Each structure stands twice: as C-alpha cells, then as structure tokens.
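User: These chains co-purify. Model them together.
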Amino acid sequence: MRSIEEAACLSRWRDRTVEVCILCFGLALCAVSIPSVFAGGVVFAAVCCLVAVAGVPWAGYLRKLAVAGGFVAVSVLPLSVGVVFGPRFELYFDRSGFETAILAVARAVAMLSVTLLLVHTTPFPRLLVLLRVLRFPETLLELLALVHREIFLLDESFSRLRRALACRDGGRGAKHGIHALGLGAAALFVQALRRSERIERGIASRASVDGTVRFWEEPIKVRPLPLSCALGVPAVLAAWIFRGRLGF
Amino acid sequence: MDSELLSFRDVSYAYPGGARLSARFPALRGHAIDSVTFSVATGSAVAILGANGSGKSTLLQLCNGLLDPDSGAISWQGSPMDRSRSGLTRVRSQVGLLFQDPDDQLFAGTLFQDVALGPLNQGLSRSEVRERVQDALEKTGLSEYADLPPHVFSHGMRKRAALAGVLAMRPKLLLLDEPTAGLDPESEERLLEIMTDLVDRGVSILVSTHDLDLARMWARDTVILDRGRLAAFGPSEQMMSNAELLEATGLRRRACRSSFGEDRMAAATGFGRVSRMGKP
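Assistant: Joint model of the two components:
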C-alpha cells in the first residue's frame, strides 16, 4: 500500500488524473474483451511500455502483479480437471475447461496490470477529486478519504504490533507465530476503534462541529496532447485486437 | 494586551465510568479535572505542568469545547462558552488545538488538503485559504512537501504538519499538547521560535508539558496540575524556584535527592555513592 502511494506521488503522470483515467478505462475495456491469450499478451506488453513511460518502479509493480496474478492463476487447476461421479470415480484433463481458464486468467492479469498502472500513477486524493466531479455522493467520498487515511494508520500500528510481538516472541515456530498474529489482529480492532474516536475529535477541533469534512480540491486541468494520447492508445490497441472482426 | 480571553471557574470534569472505577480502584481518580479556576489573558504564554495523568490534555480539550464540563463555568472572551453548533464552530475557529499524537489530526490525503481543512471549515474564500496554507507551511518548513500524503512523513514532520493545520486557522488562543515530545533539538528550537513569534503578535498560547526547562525559558506563567486539581498558578520564575512544590507534584525526582535515591543511582551507574558538598 505504502509503496503504491509513494510511487503515485512521485509518478510523472500524477497531475494528469483525467488523461490517465481515460487511458486506463480504455485499456481495461480492451483487457476484459480480449479474444485470445496472445491478445492478452499484447495488452500486457502495451501496459508495460506505459509503465516504463510513466516511470513506475518496475520491481514493486511486477511483485504486486505476480502476487495478484499468482492468486488468479491458481484457479486454472480446478477448471482444467473434470470429475466423473459414476460407478468408478474418475478425474480427467478437461481441455475446453483449461482453455476457458487460461483465457480468463489472461483477461484477469491484463486487467490487473491496468489497475496497477492506474494506482501507481494517480494519487488517491486526485482520484477522489475526479469522482467528485463525476457527482459521486459526498458522504461516500468523505468516507473513502477517511478510510484511505485510516488504512495507513492501521498498517503502521499493525507493523509496530508485529515487531513488538516478534521481539518478545523470539521467532519461536510457526504455531506460535500464528497465535501472535491472531493476538496482533485482535489488538488492532481495539486500536482501530480508539483511533477513529480520536480522529473524530481531531476533525471536531478544527471547526467542524457537525462532522462534515471539506477537502481542498485543485481544479482538474486537461491538456489536449496527453488527452489525445490517452484516447489514441486504447483505440489503436482495440483496432489491432479486433482487426479480424472489423475487417482490416 | 491583558484582557481576559479564557477563564475557568470551578470547572470539574469526569470521564464516563470514572466514578465507578475510582470506587473500585482508589488510585484511579473519579475526576479528570477537579474544581479548577484560572484565566488566560490575551498575548500570554502559559505552561501547564503536571505528572502523567494529572489532567493536562483533558484541560486543553475543555478549553477547545471538545469536552463539556460537568460543573463550573468556562468563559470565552468574557462570556460563557456557547455550546450551540454555531457557537462551538466559532470557538473552535479561534481556539486551535494541537494534539499530542499528530496522527489524531492528520486525515486528508495530502498535506495541503489537511492544512486547508480548518480554513475551509471557517468558510474562507479559496484565495485566502491558499494564502493561509502556504503561509503555515512556510512557517513550519514544509512547503515543498505540500503534495505528499502525511503517512510518508517522520514523526517530527507529522508534528509540524499538524501544527501547520492549526496555524492556518489563525487562532487567538493556541493549545499545544506536549508539542516538544519526540522532537529533536533543532525541531524543538524551530517550534519555540514559532511560538515566540505568535505570542509577539498577540496570540495566547497554552502549552502542556513535562519539560521544566521549556516552562522556565519560554512561559511567562505556569499552571501546575496535581491529580486533576490546580496545585499552583503564577509567574513561571516563582513556580520553578519552588523545589518543594515541584517535588510534591511529581515534576522533579524526589528519589535522587534522598540517600536511598543516591544509593540506587550509585548501584545503577557503578560510580559509588555520591557525597554532598561539605558533608562526609
């Protein structure tokens, strides 16, 4: 989380919220509608080029993609195995199931790569500004802003708790580690409750008696050249992916 | 410069459940604040001293209207503190509170947004909000970090960020809860400069602290709290020279002066028993 936020704040595209969102929306449409694994690879390659142009740190980007993609890839296994419940129990390799699973994974990984590009290049507060412009409910946006901050505070608290437990624990075995992790998670709930009470007081102390939070918003600027690139890249990609259907 | 800004008359406050706890465990007090009376004049620099759990933070939250006293009266600028929604908004616009833990008051996505929150709640125009935020960030030396989220900052920077958020509201009374705790000497000096500058401009400051040096060097007046009660209130020099008062209220180590303390120190440091000048 923290590394994503830092990458977004340092990204070359951090001030181009609208253009990046349009670009990612277009790429996401391409990703979910790819007809073959090869097309998925092309979308992924295009996203990788954009990652390089945006100056997103490769190591962090690929690590996150590998974790999320690996999670998705595990689903290939159950989908490529068929089961026959007859007089004799049989397991067999289901080729069509395997092909469907591979295509689904290709789409999911392509989509993940696009989502990761978005979050690595656009700071969350700027996304909220865009959502406000798009007339999302005010209460929901306030909630999102506070949850976003709270997640980082709890992440810090949890890291501290884990370090403190590890210090006293001395790294004794997996069983002990799981027990310590459970204790940490339980303590975190209490801390989260206390923290939210204190944040409520913090908001109130700054002249917000009714609890409403008004955030400063920089007006969104859209520049013609980046906007045309943001529209052009997915359009070209879509044209190449669907060239057969479009009759090129 | 000496008109009364804030005054407490016989103010008491107990946290919910405090009375039941103190009935079972006498060491835990029922009242966080017990019959406290004092006042703060315009442009004054006041230190609130007290041991842990003496009620310093509670007192500051009562000043800001975050807590409602159980009994007694709090006056703001000569009239009783208005507890209506608009009244509290007005009071909190003029009384800025810096919390002990900066994470209690940093909640926006970027530093700029966070500092702008108070002035926006005050209903100021965008140009004025921008001017105030830039001024506050400049004072606290954080101008170049305006676009960063607060969680990438160190503890010291978060403290300064929280202070910027309060300064941007341009309060008449500034309440600082242990502002120097966890700061390095350079940051501490910078903070003291900001505080001195504000007092020179007519802003009143109330600082809660354990730091006797801070109270001696910076504060004109000192309030000493002892287990929720007002133990003493007066000029800082006078308070700081009263060793017995400081020891009785737990602000200065009593053990070190006794022979038992010296033995313990000797055992801990391995330097042998320290003999007092002129004594065997």
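The domain at 4-249 of chain B is CATH 3.40.50.300 (Rossmann fold).
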